[in-house]
Specification:
Strand 5, helix 9 and strand 6 (221-224) form a beta-alpha-beta unit. The longest helix is centred in the C-terminal third of the chain and has 24 residues, at 284-307. Helices cover 35% and strands 15% of the residues. The chain has a 10-stranded mixed β-sheet, with helices on both faces. Strands 9-12 form a two-stranded antiparallel ribbon. A two-stranded antiparallel ribbon has the order 10-11. By secondary structure, it is α/β, with parallel strands linked by helices.
């Protein structure tokens, strides 16, 4: 097997440290029944049970050189459950309907963002929590008006009304936003006022570089975006990342914690948005690297949890499953060779070569879109026992709101 490039060596070192951290947590502290005041909701977009298993098999094969399933940072959490994901009008949800369920506790039709099937505006838990005195943060690896992050601050009958959704961001008054950029910063026609100018005219600072960040105070509200040299649709893929490729989800998580921390508490939604894209592409290596990258962001929250275990809740889930990945296919019967995927991380491969590599390594796919299966829930910390067992995705925000706001 070819020598790993420097950035892949770094990736493996980080993954190994992730494993060591998880190993230290085999005996979790008893879960507190107290109401949490620091709550993280991590959403792995498109991340089903098998996506996690694939990532763990890859880590076992490439880092430990063994058959097994080395745990990601969250899969060893003491509380585990599962959530159904259907939308109001389909057994198979889209991201905006699923995001609406996770943000408002209500079902809606596919392609709708935080509105009822009849088009009435729904209120996200973020607004209830803001009114109760909590700081609010939203971070994602994709654009900020993408379906999942949008569901937590905006409402629209059509998820593709990107400009209208983006214009609602500065109106929210939330404390911290981080993402790749905006898809239609000047509207679909290109003639609207630039969303960045609109944001800068409010209480927010737009932060694209470390120097920009250094010029702000910890109390200032910020919108973190990629530098202009990068695509505004998504952060650089984890599998393609080198040493100077802009912000990462882990950095967003760390900076977000620093900005949100206060004695009253905070709610922080963090999305790994490109796990879904790897599933749509039927690209196992792409998906696995994004899942591991997502897990590394969860690790940042775990470090915070260790400082405040009685006051912190971490919930990790997904909005839906994408691709129907299987660990095993008819071409490679009773066998899986996840280590073969390392080749994709070390060389530029054509689409046909990636498809063939999926087959020879033993991974299969049933779809290139979303599927209707239940998704996992992992939880640790104050109040985490509420997330044990089977529930609907609409139950997750209701449980969080009940825990965080007294008398709810």
């Amino acid at each position: 097997m070819k020598q790993l490039k420097l950035n892949k060596i770094v990736f493996c070192i980080i993954s190994l440290s992730l494993i060591i951290l998880v190993g230290q947590n085999c005996s979790w502290q008893p879960q507190s029944n107290e109401k949490p005041k620091y709550v993280f909701l991590f959403i792995g977009d498109g991340m089903g049970f098998s996506h996690i298993a694939a990532a763990e098999a890859y880590l076992s094969a490439t880092v430990a050189d063994e058959i097994g399933n080395i745990s990601l940072s969250f899969s060893d959490f003491p509380i585990m459950g599962m959530a159904t994901t259907y939308s109001a009008d389909s057994f198979v949800t889209c991201s905006s309907a699923a995001g609406t369920a996770l943000s408002t506790g209500s079902k809606t039709n596919n392609d709708m963002v935080a509105v009822t099937p009849d088009g009435e505006k729904l209120k996200s838990i973020t607004y209830y929590l803001q009114e109760a005195g909590f700081k609010i943060g939203i971070a994602t690896t994709v654009s900020l008006e993408h379906a999942t992050p949008a569901s937590f601050y905006a409402s629209d009958k059509n998820r593709r009304n990107h400009y209208h959704i983006a214009c609602q961001l500065p109106l929210s008054g939330f404390d911290f936003f981080a993402g790749s950029g905006f898809l239609d910063p000047k509207g679909k026609s290109g003639s609207e006022k630039d969303i960045l100018d609109i944001i800068r005219e409010t209480e927010y600072a737009v932060v694209k570089t470390q120097n920009d960040l250094n010029r702000t105070s910890l109390s200032q509200k910020i919108v973190m975006l990629q530098e202009d040299r990068f695509d505004n649709e998504a952060l650089v893929k984890a599998i393609e990342r080198s040493g100077d490729d802009g912000w990462t989800l882990s950095q967003f998580t760390q900076i977000g914690i620093e900005r949100l921390f206060n004695q009253a508490g905070f709610f922080f939604m963090v999305e790994g948005g490109q796990i879904d894209w790897g599933g749509h592409d039927n690209d196992a290596a792409f998906m696995i690297y994004e899942t591991i990258d997502f897990s590394q962001a969860v690790n940042i929250a775990l470090e915070f949890y260790r400082k405040y275990p009685a006051e912190t809740l971490i919930v990790v889930t997904a909005d839906h499953e994408t691709g129907g990945i299987s660990l095993g296919n008819t071409k490679v019967q009773y066998a899986l060779y996840p280590e073969l995927l390392e080749a994709q991380a070390n060389m530029n491969m054509s689409r046909d070569e990636i498809i063939e590599l999926n087959k020879t390594s033993g991974f299969g796919w049933t779809s290139d879109v979303h599927t209707g299966g239940a998704v996992p829930i992992f939880a640790i910390g104050a109040g985490s026992d509420l997330f044990r067992g089977k529930m609907d995705n609409t139950d997750i925000p209701k449980k969080i709101q009940k825990l965080m706001i007294k008398d709810k």
